[in-house]
Amino acid sequence: MQLKLRVTTNDGVTYDVATNLFTIIAMERKFKIRASDLEHGVAMEHMVYMAYEASKQAGVSVSPVFDDFIKTLADVEVIESEPGNPTDPVQSDTP
Question: How far apart are the C-alpha atoms of 49 and 81, rounded to whole Å?
Fold first, then answer.
């Protein structure tokens, strides 16, 4: 599963980050949930945490304290997502 997230800070700076396997596992460990649970809805805190971890990996300067990072944000939104287990289409004789 990969998400592209758009982060907007309180001072109007906007940047995009992408999650990866490390980001997803870090979120699972912190919140004691499985990534598959996200298909039933994503809590805002989970999405912001993924943005936090992805920002650090992308070299964006963020606070070392997650709650302080949250205080700097105006919005985080998903702009693109890839399914966790994509499958290729299968040719079928059935119309």
Answer: 16
Per the structure block, which two tokens stand in for 45? 């805190």
The model carries a pTM of 0.82
Is the separation of the CB atoms in 38 and 83 below 8 Å? Answer: no
pLDDT, tens digit, for every residue of 71-85? 999 999 999 876 554
DSSP state, residue 72: T
Strands (E), the chain: 2-9, 14-18, 73-82
Q: Where are the domains of the chain?
A: 2-82
CA 4 – CA 81 distance, rounded (Å): 6
